[in-house]
């Protein structure tokens, strides 16, 4: 669940930067907060994203590249987000913020 949540929170931060409508739609499907019990909103989306990254073996850049690659495999129009993840090292702090939000989420939902 941690890896999934990291992806979700990184993408959530990307949304504020890119404002892509399709990214908003994807995040709605990914949202673990909308169900009220901490489970992701859409089980199929969870299955597609739960193993995209491994925070124990990947560095920040590798994580961003893997998320971008997974986005390329979707039908969503998220080219700005892909470009942001692949080409902007100034967003490295997204990972640290995503880690913090993930830990808070796991504590709040006792997962």
Commentary on this structure:
The chain is globular. It contains six helices and no strands. The protein has helices at residues 2-18, 21-30, 43-49, 60-72, 79-87, 93-108. The protein is mostly helical. Helix 1 (2-18) packs antiparallel against helix 2, helix 1 (2-18) crosses helix 5 (79-87) and helix 4 packs antiparallel against helix 5. The protein starts with a helix and ends with a helix. The longest helix is centred in the first third of the chain and has 17 residues, at 2-18. The relative contact order is 0.22. The protein has one domain (2-108).
Short description:
It contains 6 helices and no strands.
Secondary structure elements and their pairing?
Layout (H helix, E strand, L loop, with lengths): L1 H17 L2 H10 L12 H7 L10 H13 L6 H9 L5 H16 L3
